[in-house]
Amino acid sequence: MSRQMKKNLVAYSFILPNFLGFAVFTLGPVIFALILGFLEWDGNNPMVFVGLSNFKELFADSRFKIALWNTITYVIGTVPLTLVSALALAVVLNQKVKGRNFFRTVSFFPYVASLVAVAAVWNMIFNPANGPINMLLYKLGVSADHLPGWAADKHWAMITVILFSVWKNMGYYMVIYLAGLQGISGELYEAAGLDGANAWQKFKNITWPMLSPTTFFVIIMLTINSFKVYDQMYMITQGGPGTSTLVLVYHIYNVAFKNWDLGYASAISMVLFLLVLIVTIVQFKGEKKFVNY
Amino acid sequence: MRNKKFYALVLATTMVVASLAGCGSSKESTATTDTKESTTNESSETTDQASTSTDEEVTLTWALWDLEQTTYYQPLIDAYETANPNVKIKTLDLGSTDYMTVLATQLTGGDSTIDVATIKDIPGYATLVNKNQLEPLNDFITQNGIDTKAYSGITDQITIDNNLYALPFRSDFWVVYYNKALFDAAGVDYPTNDMTFAQYDELARKVSNDKAGTEKVYGAHYHTWRSAVQLFGILDGKNTIVDGAYDFLKPYYEMVLNEQKDGICQDYAALKTASLHYSAAFYQNQVAMMNMGTWFIPTLIKAIESGESQATEWGIVKYPHADGVEPGSTLATITSLAVSKASENKEAALDFVKFVTGEEGAAIIANTGTFPAIMTDQVINTISSIEGYPADDTSKVALHTANTYLEMPVHEKSSEIETILNDAHDNIMTGNITIEDGIKEMNEQVSAVLGK
């Protein structure tokens, strides 16, 4: 055995445990789901090969179209909002402000807290009839007829869930940004200060470019996580009112575990997979232009 | 440079794949365990033949929900274990939220530990039968001389392709609960056992008031379930909920939406976002009438005893009826027991099912204030004479039904239809779409499902 080969074997043996887990719990199921997309199967009776009919069914399925559209709306609403709020929080809490540790903890708290509990609280706060938010809006002069119905109104339900997600997740991305910020050398700011740069110029020409790898990571993770959103909808709106917050994963869950149409559910998840893959590839392509070093 | 591109692509793919693992993995596990199940199926057949002697020690697992809150499980188990000392009944509480989904998932996972499964609703039942996971009971029924006539027609409603896959042990039906104190305070006569929908609506409006806060009285209360409003429409026996045409629902939606607009009942959207339980709504002493199933009777009695309910004087009347229809036509919800096909103790499991769904079981269930599926005058007397049940005659007469209709009839597509109807109900009740548009949505989408 050559030296190189031995070296490689050692390396593979380190990778193996992780890869085994990946193969058994991720790769295998994904390949199986891909195959299932061409079958009709309810989990118990024999599988029947149906060719492309599951994929053809997608075009006639009005709920799928609604879910697809809702998912895209959610991604477009959540990603930029979370990014901006996380960055703003990180920049502010990176300064030497009084009690910054306290505020960092406060911002991170929603991410740690149990989704079930905070969703229940969120529903109380945003209760259209007697929640504090609407009471406040009413006090501020919004007439009773124009108060938003939040989770109970089909026009506001998605916004409510998006706001919830932003609030819940921005703490996590703030921590990632804080790490990025602390990696920026103070000398750059000193030099810029000597050249007479103001705060905005420092941010625009130092912070933002130096953070670009972090931003890239945050965008990718946020996008992928937003495409597979499910739990928020389940807790806050159950996909409602009507179908106004029905997202793809929720639809997959209903088709798979309520109707037991596992083949069709797999076909939908393949569409979701392709969608996320395409978006992610586009983002990686954009990386070169965007990430500055 | 090329390499970097390649790695980026691989990285992107892995990230995406990992992100989808949640959807895929559960399916994989069902696949692997499926083979396991088919082997247990075979082995169960062999054990079936082996365990003809009844003296063997057997432990049966009974899948159910809300073990703590339900009063009849333990008495049933105790009685059966006393009569059959060689059998131990183990309970498996799967929780009431999504019970049928969890049960179906468990059974799909090849869980041969579940012997007896409680069937909570019809769509879930139809799904399990389609999935071929319940033991057909026809042979057993004939062999044991079980008289399905005792169930007064309920078993016909859950027969699929001439076969029964479950036997009912509870049969609840919907009635109108009313709060006597609120009627007294408003100086309005109590509701009666013979109300048309128009009279019911009028009464709800009369007993309501315009006060604010805790003084406010709502004439009626509709829980956020589809059944609470939509199914008024099927009580004349002319329509069913699985036909694909829903225009007959219009007058009932109009009645309830108008009540909602006029503050006669609480706002659906608010109830939904607050996830207010119907029992809590009634306990608050602000709801004069509430349509709900008879399963609420033992719960309400218990809540009054413990002081949880502020509403203490109550009565029951029959469901309101459409013009020209016999009073006492109402909705029925049945709860039944089935034996899992994967069970390794089918014989013992069937015997337990026979006990619970039979007359002995019915007597035990009735003693807890719950309606068994075998309904006799004796049972009605037992329930209406338990402590805490209202003493007036009207409340006793209210327990005699005329025609009962299942909340959801057995249908191959019932679970898909249910989802569509729920969404439309939600949309109509929150005022997101008009009644006409909601009905149109139901007509179109259900027809599409039926035509598939």
From TrEMBL, chain B:
Residues 25-54 are annotated as: Disordered. InterPro entries: Bact_solute-bd_prot1, SBP. PROSITE patterns: PROKAR_LIPOPROTEIN. It is found in: Cell envelope. GO terms for cellular component: cell envelope. Its main location: other. It comes from the Bacteria. Residues 1-21 form the signal peptide. The keyword Signal applies. The keyword Methyltransferase does not apply. Keywords: Signal, Transport. Belongs to the bacterial solute-binding protein 1 family. PANTHER family: ARABINOSE-BINDING PROTEIN-RELATED (PTHR43649), SN-GLYCEROL-3-PHOSPHATE-BINDING PERIPLASMIC PROTEIN UGPB (PTHR43649:SF31). This is Sugar ABC transporter substrate-binding protein.
